[in-house]
Specification:
single chain; alpha+beta; Cytochrome p450; four-stranded mixed β-sheet; 20 helices; 11% strand
Length: 503
Amino acid sequence: MESVAGLPASVVLLAAGLFGLLVVGRALQFARLRSFKGPFLTNFTNLPHRKALFKERAHEWYAEVCEKYARVAPNLLITSDPDVWIHVNNKPGYKRSDWYYTACRIEYQRDNVFSQTDNKKHEQRRKQMAPGYSGRENLDLEISIDQCLQEFIDLIRSKYVSTDAKIVPVDMAKKVQFFALDVISGVGLGRTFGMVKNDTDVEGYLQSAEEGLRIANFSLAIGLSWIAQAPVIGRFIAPSPKTPNGFGRMIATCFRYVDEREANATDKRSDMLASFIRHGITGADLKTEALEQIVAGSDTTSSAIRIILLHIITNPRVYAKLQKEIDEAVHTGKAPTEGIISHSQTKQLPYLQATIREAMRVMPPVANIFSRDIPAQGDTVRVKGQDVFLPGGANIGYSAYAMHRSPEIYGEDAKAFRPERWFEEDQDKLAVMLRTNELIFGHGKYQCLGKSVAQIEIGKVIFELLRYFDIAVMHPDKPWHAENALGLFHIKDMWVQVMERGV
């Protein structure tokens, strides 16, 4: 055989060989997971999974698959069992899957604590960063949050209060995002980006970050996320501080703050950046982690606040009951009559805590599969009283939507927003619910480092907004627009009217 259709025989043989390898690879994947059922096409192709990512509704598709199956792609399993997911996150040998986490890199060929898939490097970096997030070394943490929250309240009161004579629409999705980014930049870098003060997306940071997230999600969906990290060409695609506007400008600003701090050895501020430096994170690594905390910390917390607010203001019974608890707290001295409520005081308000917990259960603010590589030797897990062997070489992830809406755990009305479920009298059942609910923030060595910061921020802002204002959606038929990109929700057009309360 000298040629086929004018092509040299060597080219034909190479193409045939590559096709053969692809077929063999798919056959091995099918054989490896043949005992795990999934939608028909998932036995052979990633197309159903890619389609769900492309439509930016992957979290809903994962939940639908979990109702009947355990497989979402030829080499990818999924679970909604909290015990299985805890096991996967606790047991040595599992690691984050490159296919997802590499796509979550912000910089070219540089890992941060979230995207790092090497277990030893990830563990070491967490140890260096945890004290700064916990508040033990960030003594001004709550004060910084209070200052940002007071600016946020003042902004609404000065520009966006409606009256009987005039409605002033406000996109609460955008304002909450301004607030969240100011908080994380303030507690993380020692100075805010000034979003709330200027009531604008300074330098287009947020718009560019959202566009970048959607591009990353699209690239993952079509199987091309690797290009942004590819040698040579990736340098021209990945975000760069040299870009003069938008996200590049945000990176440059963040890096400048870090450079200024490292250059000033006498700076005694007690914020996250100072803690990171004290624990040995310097130079390019310090810039990488500072940038990651800004991007991840603002997106996740702002999503949580918006989710909680929407569930409250669209449920009159819950809204009235929560405002009653808030008013009574102020009148009885459980909360200050002036100034911002403390974190410890928010924790003493049971219905506030139940409402926050319940809204984040019904709609987890971070909802991707967070895939893990199963150890090469495989592993055995317990599912509904039976041992199930997970073959090595495959991946396993979880569906937050399916897990946190499970009727087996939360009751037959698990998909309904009902804060009262957290006052369950059966203590054993309540313990299972609480244990499962904590997985919203991850588990073990993968638990969200910013959990405590987010909880402080969320409790305070929900209390203070409902203390001073009555909030109503402008468009009940479409209260917002929400899309899922890489597990983070891009929420916009949450138009509301805000009226001052007579308190």
